[in-house]
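Q&A log
Question type: sequence-to-structure
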Amino acid sequence: MAIRAEYIWIDGTEPLPYIRSKTRILDDRTTDIPVWGFDGSSTNQAPGENSDCVLQPVFTCPDPIRGGDNVLVLCEVLLPDTMQPHPSNTRSLAVAALEKYGDQEPWFGIEQEYTFFEAGRPLGWPIEGYPAPQGPYYCGVGAIEISGRAVVEAHTTACIEAGLAISGTNAEVMLGQWEFQIGPADTVSAADQVWVARYLLYRIAEDYGIDASIDAKPMKGDWNGAGCHTNFSTNAMREGYDAVIAACEALGAPGKPEEHIANYGHGTEERLTGMHETAHHSEYRYGVSDRGASVRIPWQVAKDQKGYIEDRRPNANMDPYVVTALITSTCCEALA
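Response status: OK
Response body:
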Protein backbone atom coordinates (compact mmCIF):
# COMPACT_ATOMS: atom_id res chain seq x y z
CA MET A 1 0.00 0.00 0.00
CA ALA A 2 1.37 3.40 -0.98
CA ILE A 3 2.40 5.81 1.75
CA ARG A 4 3.29 9.50 1.87
CA ALA A 5 6.70 10.62 3.04
CA GLU A 6 6.84 14.30 3.98
CA TYR A 7 10.38 15.49 3.25
CA ILE A 8 11.31 18.39 5.57
CA TRP A 9 14.36 20.64 5.26
CA ILE A 10 15.74 24.00 6.35
CA ASP A 11 16.14 26.58 3.60
CA GLY A 12 18.83 29.23 3.05
CA THR A 13 16.87 32.39 3.85
CA GLU A 14 18.82 34.90 5.96
CA PRO A 15 18.86 35.97 8.68
CA LEU A 16 16.13 33.47 9.59
CA PRO A 17 15.57 30.31 7.53
CA TYR A 18 12.18 28.82 6.79
CA ILE A 19 11.12 25.21 7.16
CA ARG A 20 10.17 23.72 3.79
CA SER A 21 8.47 20.44 2.99
CA LYS A 22 7.07 18.42 0.11
CA THR A 23 5.45 15.02 -0.25
CA ARG A 24 6.75 11.92 -2.00
CA ILE A 25 4.59 8.85 -2.59
CA LEU A 26 6.38 5.58 -1.86
CA ASP A 27 5.26 2.04 -2.64
CA ASP A 28 5.00 0.95 0.99
CA ARG A 29 6.49 1.40 4.47
CA THR A 30 9.21 -1.19 3.85
CA THR A 31 10.65 0.87 1.00
CA ASP A 32 13.91 2.58 1.85
CA ILE A 33 13.53 6.35 2.09
CA PRO A 34 15.41 7.55 -1.00
CA VAL A 35 17.52 10.62 -1.58
CA TRP A 36 15.48 13.30 -3.35
CA GLY A 37 15.99 16.79 -4.77
CA PHE A 38 14.43 20.23 -4.97
CA ASP A 39 14.71 23.61 -6.67
CA GLY A 40 17.24 25.51 -4.60
CA SER A 41 16.66 28.69 -6.57
CA SER A 42 13.27 28.97 -4.86
CA THR A 43 14.67 28.49 -1.34
CA ASN A 44 17.71 30.81 -1.42
CA GLN A 45 20.03 27.83 -1.78
CA ALA A 46 21.07 27.90 -5.45
CA PRO A 47 21.09 30.13 -8.54
CA GLY A 48 18.52 29.56 -11.27
CA GLU A 49 21.09 28.39 -13.80
CA ASN A 50 22.30 25.63 -11.45
CA SER A 51 19.32 25.10 -9.20
CA ASP A 52 19.33 21.44 -8.11
CA CYS A 53 19.97 20.60 -4.45
CA VAL A 54 19.90 17.20 -2.76
CA LEU A 55 17.71 16.07 0.15
CA GLN A 56 19.49 13.43 2.24
CA PRO A 57 17.17 11.77 4.79
CA VAL A 58 18.67 11.83 8.30
CA PHE A 59 15.75 11.39 10.72
CA THR A 60 12.47 9.57 10.09
CA CYS A 61 9.45 9.25 12.37
CA PRO A 62 5.73 8.45 12.09
CA ASP A 63 3.58 11.22 10.61
CA PRO A 64 1.03 11.95 13.36
CA ILE A 65 -1.02 14.24 11.14
CA ARG A 66 -1.70 11.77 8.33
CA GLY A 67 -1.43 8.69 10.53
CA GLY A 68 -1.17 5.16 9.21
CA ASP A 69 2.24 4.20 7.86
CA ASN A 70 2.96 7.70 6.56
CA VAL A 71 6.24 9.24 7.73
CA LEU A 72 8.02 12.54 8.31
CA VAL A 73 11.51 12.66 6.85
CA LEU A 74 13.90 15.34 8.10
CA CYS A 75 16.66 15.93 5.57
CA GLU A 76 20.05 17.52 5.25
CA VAL A 77 20.70 19.62 2.16
CA LEU A 78 23.69 18.49 0.09
CA LEU A 79 25.44 19.84 -3.00
CA PRO A 80 24.71 17.60 -6.02
CA ASP A 81 28.23 17.66 -7.48
CA THR A 82 30.04 16.54 -4.35
CA MET A 83 27.28 15.21 -2.06
CA GLN A 84 28.86 17.35 0.66
CA PRO A 85 26.89 19.61 3.02
CA HIS A 86 25.38 22.71 1.43
CA PRO A 87 26.63 26.00 3.00
CA SER A 88 23.21 26.35 4.67
CA ASN A 89 23.49 22.87 6.19
CA THR A 90 24.31 23.60 9.83
CA ARG A 91 23.53 20.05 10.95
CA SER A 92 27.04 19.12 9.86
CA LEU A 93 28.39 21.33 12.68
CA ALA A 94 26.42 19.40 15.29
CA VAL A 95 27.49 16.06 13.81
CA ALA A 96 31.15 17.09 13.95
CA ALA A 97 30.85 18.27 17.57
CA LEU A 98 29.20 15.02 18.65
CA GLU A 99 31.78 12.92 16.83
CA LYS A 100 34.57 14.78 18.62
CA TYR A 101 33.09 14.87 22.12
CA GLY A 102 30.63 11.99 22.12
CA ASP A 103 32.64 10.15 24.78
CA GLN A 104 31.51 12.84 27.26
CA GLU A 105 27.85 11.98 26.53
CA PRO A 106 26.53 15.53 25.99
CA TRP A 107 22.80 15.83 26.69
CA PHE A 108 20.47 18.68 25.89
CA GLY A 109 17.02 19.75 26.99
CA ILE A 110 15.74 22.56 24.76
CA GLU A 111 12.89 24.85 25.84
CA GLN A 112 11.21 26.27 22.72
CA GLU A 113 9.10 29.35 23.40
CA TYR A 114 6.74 30.63 20.71
CA THR A 115 3.84 33.04 20.27
CA PHE A 116 0.51 32.44 18.53
CA PHE A 117 -0.70 35.20 16.20
CA GLU A 118 -4.08 35.69 14.59
CA ALA A 119 -5.03 38.58 12.31
CA GLY A 120 -1.73 40.31 13.03
CA ARG A 121 -1.90 40.33 16.84
CA PRO A 122 -1.03 37.81 19.55
CA LEU A 123 -3.79 35.29 20.11
CA GLY A 124 -6.19 36.39 22.85
CA TRP A 125 -5.24 40.06 22.67
CA PRO A 126 -8.05 42.60 22.20
CA ILE A 127 -8.60 44.01 18.71
CA GLU A 128 -7.57 47.42 20.01
CA GLY A 129 -5.25 48.16 22.89
CA TYR A 130 -3.53 45.66 25.13
CA PRO A 131 -4.46 42.91 27.57
CA ALA A 132 -3.91 43.21 31.31
CA PRO A 133 -0.24 43.39 32.30
CA GLN A 134 1.83 40.23 32.59
CA GLY A 135 1.37 38.29 35.79
CA PRO A 136 -1.50 35.77 35.57
CA TYR A 137 -0.55 34.24 32.21
CA TYR A 138 2.50 32.11 33.10
CA CYS A 139 1.25 28.52 33.64
CA GLY A 140 -2.21 30.07 33.87
CA VAL A 141 -5.57 28.33 33.78
CA GLY A 142 -8.81 29.87 32.52
CA ALA A 143 -10.20 31.56 29.44
CA ILE A 144 -8.95 35.01 30.49
CA GLU A 145 -5.43 33.86 31.33
CA ILE A 146 -4.88 31.44 28.46
CA SER A 147 -5.32 31.45 24.69
CA GLY A 148 -4.46 28.68 22.24
CA ARG A 149 -4.57 25.63 24.49
CA ALA A 150 -6.36 23.51 21.86
CA VAL A 151 -3.47 23.99 19.45
CA VAL A 152 -0.95 23.22 22.18
CA GLU A 153 -2.72 19.99 23.12
CA ALA A 154 -2.93 18.90 19.48
CA HIS A 155 0.76 19.68 18.98
CA THR A 156 1.78 17.81 22.12
CA THR A 157 -0.21 14.75 21.07
CA ALA A 158 1.40 14.89 17.63
CA CYS A 159 4.91 15.05 19.10
CA ILE A 160 4.20 12.05 21.33
CA GLU A 161 2.75 10.05 18.45
CA ALA A 162 5.78 10.93 16.32
CA GLY A 163 8.02 9.49 19.01
CA LEU A 164 9.78 12.75 19.78
CA ALA A 165 11.36 13.27 23.20
CA ILE A 166 8.89 15.97 24.18
CA SER A 167 9.14 16.35 27.94
CA GLY A 168 6.73 19.15 28.82
CA THR A 169 4.63 22.17 27.82
CA ASN A 170 3.43 25.31 29.59
CA ALA A 171 1.88 28.70 29.00
CA GLU A 172 4.46 31.48 29.13
CA VAL A 173 4.62 34.96 30.65
CA MET A 174 2.94 36.88 27.82
CA LEU A 175 -0.65 36.12 26.81
CA GLY A 176 -0.65 33.96 23.68
CA GLN A 177 2.88 32.71 24.36
CA TRP A 178 3.70 29.05 25.05
CA GLU A 179 6.62 26.67 25.39
CA PHE A 180 7.44 23.03 24.73
CA GLN A 181 10.54 21.15 25.83
CA ILE A 182 12.52 18.54 23.92
CA GLY A 183 15.02 16.25 25.65
CA PRO A 184 17.11 14.89 27.08
CA ALA A 185 18.85 13.94 23.86
CA ASP A 186 22.32 14.24 22.40
CA THR A 187 23.83 17.13 20.43
CA VAL A 188 22.39 16.03 17.07
CA SER A 189 19.20 14.25 18.11
CA ALA A 190 17.99 17.14 20.28
CA ALA A 191 18.38 19.57 17.40
CA ASP A 192 16.78 17.20 14.87
CA GLN A 193 13.75 16.80 17.12
CA VAL A 194 13.37 20.54 17.75
CA TRP A 195 13.18 21.10 14.00
CA VAL A 196 10.58 18.35 13.57
CA ALA A 197 8.60 19.68 16.54
CA ARG A 198 8.69 23.16 15.00
CA TYR A 199 7.40 21.72 11.72
CA LEU A 200 4.54 20.02 13.55
CA LEU A 201 3.73 23.23 15.42
CA TYR A 202 3.51 25.28 12.22
CA ARG A 203 1.58 22.57 10.40
CA ILE A 204 -1.00 22.05 13.18
CA ALA A 205 -1.45 25.78 13.82
CA GLU A 206 -2.13 26.10 10.08
CA ASP A 207 -5.24 23.93 10.52
CA TYR A 208 -6.53 26.41 13.12
CA GLY A 209 -5.83 29.45 10.95
CA ILE A 210 -3.17 30.58 13.45
CA ASP A 211 0.47 31.51 12.94
CA ALA A 212 3.08 30.24 15.40
CA SER A 213 5.95 32.72 15.60
CA ILE A 214 9.42 32.18 17.07
CA ASP A 215 10.30 35.87 16.87
CA ALA A 216 12.64 36.79 19.74
CA LYS A 217 10.65 39.92 20.63
CA PRO A 218 7.16 39.42 19.23
CA MET A 219 5.73 42.56 20.87
CA LYS A 220 7.66 45.74 21.58
CA GLY A 221 7.49 47.36 24.98
CA ASP A 222 7.03 45.91 28.45
CA TRP A 223 6.34 42.36 27.29
CA ASN A 224 8.52 39.27 27.58
CA GLY A 225 10.55 38.18 24.62
CA ALA A 226 10.72 34.58 23.48
CA GLY A 227 13.76 32.43 24.17
CA CYS A 228 14.99 28.92 23.61
CA HIS A 229 16.64 28.20 26.95
CA THR A 230 19.12 25.40 26.44
CA ASN A 231 19.89 22.93 29.22
CA PHE A 232 23.18 21.05 29.00
CA SER A 233 25.12 18.38 30.82
CA THR A 234 27.89 15.86 30.31
CA ASN A 235 28.60 12.62 32.15
CA ALA A 236 31.08 14.49 34.38
CA MET A 237 28.50 17.19 35.20
CA ARG A 238 25.93 14.56 36.04
CA GLU A 239 28.42 13.04 38.47
CA GLY A 240 29.97 16.07 40.17
CA TYR A 241 29.57 19.80 40.85
CA ASP A 242 33.12 20.81 39.94
CA ALA A 243 32.34 19.97 36.30
CA VAL A 244 29.13 22.03 36.49
CA ILE A 245 31.12 25.09 37.59
CA ALA A 246 33.80 24.37 34.98
CA ALA A 247 31.17 24.41 32.24
CA CYS A 248 29.82 27.76 33.49
CA GLU A 249 33.35 29.19 33.57
CA ALA A 250 34.07 27.87 30.06
CA LEU A 251 31.04 29.70 28.66
CA GLY A 252 32.40 32.92 30.19
CA ALA A 253 36.03 32.49 29.08
CA PRO A 254 37.56 35.39 27.09
CA GLY A 255 35.83 35.74 23.73
CA LYS A 256 33.28 33.00 24.39
CA PRO A 257 30.31 35.19 25.44
CA GLU A 258 30.65 37.24 22.25
CA GLU A 259 30.99 34.13 20.08
CA HIS A 260 27.94 32.49 21.60
CA ILE A 261 25.74 35.60 21.52
CA ALA A 262 26.58 36.11 17.84
CA ASN A 263 25.29 32.60 17.10
CA TYR A 264 22.28 32.47 19.42
CA GLY A 265 19.67 33.76 16.98
CA HIS A 266 18.28 37.00 15.58
CA GLY A 267 16.96 39.84 17.74
CA THR A 268 19.34 39.55 20.69
CA GLU A 269 19.51 43.29 21.40
CA GLU A 270 15.73 43.51 21.62
CA ARG A 271 15.33 40.49 23.88
CA LEU A 272 18.42 40.42 26.11
CA THR A 273 17.95 43.85 27.64
CA GLY A 274 18.59 42.99 31.29
CA MET A 275 14.83 43.08 31.90
CA HIS A 276 12.11 40.44 31.58
CA GLU A 277 14.14 37.62 33.15
CA THR A 278 17.25 38.18 31.03
CA ALA A 279 20.83 39.28 31.53
CA HIS A 280 22.00 42.10 29.24
CA HIS A 281 23.57 40.79 26.05
CA SER A 282 26.81 42.67 26.80
CA GLU A 283 27.48 40.86 30.09
CA TYR A 284 28.05 37.28 31.17
CA ARG A 285 27.37 35.87 34.60
CA TYR A 286 26.06 32.67 36.11
CA GLY A 287 24.31 31.93 39.38
CA VAL A 288 22.21 29.45 41.30
CA SER A 289 18.46 29.82 40.71
CA ASP A 290 19.05 33.20 39.02
CA ARG A 291 16.75 33.78 36.05
CA GLY A 292 18.40 37.12 35.45
CA ALA A 293 21.76 35.44 34.84
CA SER A 294 23.18 34.42 31.47
CA VAL A 295 23.49 30.86 32.72
CA ARG A 296 21.39 29.47 35.58
CA ILE A 297 22.38 26.60 37.84
CA PRO A 298 19.09 25.10 39.08
CA TRP A 299 18.77 25.00 42.88
CA GLN A 300 18.37 21.23 42.82
CA VAL A 301 21.71 20.92 41.04
CA ALA A 302 23.42 23.03 43.69
CA LYS A 303 21.77 20.94 46.39
CA ASP A 304 22.64 17.59 44.80
CA GLN A 305 26.13 18.81 43.79
CA LYS A 306 25.65 17.42 40.28
CA GLY A 307 23.39 17.88 37.25
CA TYR A 308 23.08 20.41 34.45
CA ILE A 309 23.13 24.11 33.55
CA GLU A 310 20.64 26.30 31.69
CA ASP A 311 21.96 28.75 29.11
CA ARG A 312 19.18 31.37 29.01
CA ARG A 313 20.65 33.44 26.17
CA PRO A 314 19.53 31.59 22.99
CA ASN A 315 16.60 33.27 21.24
CA ALA A 316 13.44 31.44 20.24
CA ASN A 317 14.53 31.60 16.60
CA MET A 318 17.98 30.12 17.22
CA ASP A 319 19.29 27.37 14.98
CA PRO A 320 19.42 24.36 17.33
CA TYR A 321 22.22 22.72 15.33
CA VAL A 322 24.43 25.80 15.72
CA VAL A 323 23.64 26.19 19.41
CA THR A 324 24.08 22.55 20.43
CA ALA A 325 27.34 22.34 18.45
CA LEU A 326 28.68 25.51 20.05
CA ILE A 327 27.76 24.59 23.64
CA THR A 328 29.10 21.06 23.17
CA SER A 329 32.42 22.30 21.81
CA THR A 330 32.92 25.08 24.38
CA CYS A 331 32.03 23.03 27.46
CA CYS A 332 33.44 19.66 26.42
CA GLU A 333 36.76 21.14 25.40
CA ALA A 334 37.09 22.62 28.89
CA LEU A 335 36.02 19.38 30.54
CA ALA A 336 38.24 17.10 28.44
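Response note: The first strand starts at residue 3 and ends at 10.
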